[in-house]
Design a protein that fits this description.
The protein is α+β, with helices and mostly antiparallel strands. The protein has one domain: Aminopeptidase. The chain is 30% helix and 20% strand. The protein has a five-stranded mixed sheet. The site of coenzyme A has 21 residues, from β4, α3 and α4.
């Protein structure tokens, strides 16, 4: 197995933005928001998170090269691990496992939200001691409703209350 004695974990700077944007767009199918991100939107996002003390974005460096990223978001009782990305050459080398092992504190609770078909991510978090704790079910808007379905009565009531604007 490949070892990573020279991982450096640095906080995100403005110089890292394009690296992250390109990597994120190349892997967007794995993210809950899978829309492509423009440079302008990415800069707006950066200005927002740079002033948010609850989110820290990290960049992984190996031998002077950017290799990937992840973020930790403090939600009070839980820390959310997110935005995991590794550049292709570093995937399957144990780099992300080693990086998160360095960052995870034994006395804190962590959470990750993963698409169920993201096997790499699921096995990464399992390796780090995460266990499934909830099931979120979604019915895509593109699904055809069953014949005769009248939809959700509560939603219909809310719609009529709001003049059909929701
Ligand atoms: C998710 C992602 C970050 C996980 O990366 P990864 O390469 O699987 O994670 P690691 O760097 O820890 O590598 C672990 C793999 O390398 C292998 N490995 C090799 N050397 C290793 C070492 N020294 N230590 C641990 N694992 C090692 C492991 O066996 C493991 O492979 P396996 O899962 O097939 O068993 C990466 O796949 C990625 O960037 N995916 C695209 C974006 C994405 O899906 N993001 C997550 C959204 S929730």
């Amino acid at each position: 197995m490949t070892q990573h004695p020279r991982i450096e974990i640095r906080s995100l700077t403005e110089d890292d933005l394009e690296f992250i944007r390109v990597l994120r767009n190349a892997n967007r199918q794995w993210f809950l928001n899978s829309e492509p991100i423009s440079s302008a939107a990415h800069r707006r996002w950066y200005r927002k998170i740079a002033s948010d003390r609850n989110v820290v974005f990290y960049v992984l460096w190996i031998a002077g090269r950017r290799a990937g990223t992840f973020s930790l978001t403090n939600r009070g009782d839980v820390v959310v691990v997110g935005n995991l990305l590794l550049a292709r050459p570093y995937q399957g080398t144990g780099l992300m496992t080693a990086a998160l092992r360095q960052m995870i504190e034994p006395n804190r609770t962590y959470r990750a939200e993963i698409k169920p078909d993201n096997g790499r991510s699921v096995s990464l978090f399992a390796r780090l001691g995460f266990r499934p704790s909830q099931v979120v079910m979604t019915r895509s808007a593109s699904s055809t409703p069953p014949v005769g379905s009248r939809g959700c009565p509560a939603l219909a009531a809310m719609r009529s209350e709001h003049g059909g604007s929701i």
